[in-house]
Amino acid sequence: MTDAAELRRRTRELLAAHPPATTGRPDFLRARFDAGLAWVHFPEGLGGLDAPRSLQAAVDTELEAAGAPDNDPRRIGIGLGMAAPTILQYGTEEQKKRFLRPLWTGEEVWCQLFSEPGAGSDLAALGTRAVREGDHWVVNGQKVWTSSAHLARWAILIARTDPDVPKHRGITYFVCDMTDPGVEVRPLRQITGEAEFNEVFLTGVRIPDAHRLGGTGDGWRVARTTLDNERVAIGGMRLPREGGMIGPVSRTWRERPGLRTHDLHQRLLRLWVEAEVARLTGERLRQQLVAGQPGPEGAGMKLAFARLNQEISGLEVELRGEEGLLYDDWTMRRPELVDFTGRDAGYRYLRSKGNSIEGGTSEVLLNIVAERVLGLPAEPRTDKDVAWKDLSR
């Protein structure tokens, strides 16, 4: 049984064999993965040691104290938070060995090809088609709101493989090579001025059947695993007290007393308490993850994350008055990550508008909480037994 002391010993052995001061970052990260210290709860040989997830902190503390490099998790969050757990649960042994190591080291960036212009909130209505031709699938369609597509080597993709059955039953899940012929990535400029998202057009893209995750037609079940993990990754990130959006507005309040009013004070107090409650709830959710897979509780966390970000950024703009209406840079650029706290109040206000859309709209997440957490009756679905090809679009 691996315990914290054993993990600390293994970590010190890694540091002795690969001193961070003299070992290149990629080499150190590969050695860490091979030592089972990447994500200790993963199986041996896949970056872990079959240890409890809670013991990861013992490794991370030792490495941080030694000045060891990390894998820049914010840049590769889609791979770490969505692709990796899905591959671990549904991938073949060959797929796990091929994809997980360069995914964790950050040598291969991942993106997510789920949403479509006509299938956002109702994702199961997607129309991108995959047709079997021998040992390959030929994929045609369009995806949208794809973060990191301009940087990604690989994508997790869901496509319709059987239009003759109801929409949830005719979907299959694939790993798509973003460098293949027929994959076109176009920037999608946002209200912030930059193009963090993309449109992706798939024209005759050939995906080998060896890159299918799960069974043919079983893609919705596989996708739900990804979505549950996505919501935890977005709404359940670990933060210190006054981390995230509440930090900048709290600092402004303390440093600039001339901006204060009684009404703003009452609103800030309420939001500060709610942000702290959400942070502590996120800690509890992560502790629950130690015992198993993420469940629908992640939808509640993501709901709170979106609402709080929008309310807090709105309060910050109002607190700053005319200054809050300024914006630092409208230049069209394609960033590698979203930096909520490194930009000005105007950016935070505009960017947070997307929080209630990305990762599942708040309306859809409310239904998930109602049905899967509270056990309330499901909403009537008139399309439940209708073949996808017969649906109105």
Description:
There is one protein chain. The strands form two sheets. A four-stranded mixed sheet has the order 1-4-5-8. It has 393 residues and is of the alpha+beta class. The protein is built from eleven helices and eight strands. The model has no long low-confidence stretch (mean pLDDT 92). It starts with a helix and ends in a 20-residue tail after the last helix.
Strand order of the largest sheet: 1-4-5-8
Largest sheet: 4 strands, mixed
Query: Would you tell me the structural class of the helices and strands?
Result: alpha+beta
Query: What is the helix tally?
Result: 11
Large-scale geometry? globular
Percent of residues in beta strands? 5-15%
- Total count of strands: 8
Compute the CA-based radius of gyration: 22 Å
Question: What is the distance, rounded to the nearest whole angstrom, between the alpha carbons of the first and last residues?
Answer: 55 Å
Helix content: 40-55%
In terms of quaternary structure, the protein is single chain
* Nearest-integer average pLDDT: 92
What is the N-to-C order of secondary-structure elements (H for helix, E for strand)? HHHHHEEEEEEEEHHHHHH
Any low-confidence stretches, pLDDT <50, length ≥5?
Answer: none
Please outline the helices and strands.
Layout: H1 4-17, H2 25-34, H3 56-65, H4 77-90, H5 93-105, E1 110-113, E2 129-133, E3 136-143, E4 154-160, E5 171-177, E6 183-188, E7 197-208, E8 212-213, H6 219-235, H7 246-255, H8 262-289, H9 297-320, H10 345-351, H11 362-373
Parallel strand pairs: 1-4
Antiparallel strand pairs: 2-3, 3-7, 4-5, 5-8, 6-7
